Amino acid sequence: MAGDEPRPVLAVASAAGPWRPFGEVRLSARRGARADAAPAFDPIGNVPPGLRLAGPPARLRDTGYRGSRRGRGVAVSRVARRG
Question: Residue 82: what pLDDT?
Answer without folding.
Answer: 47
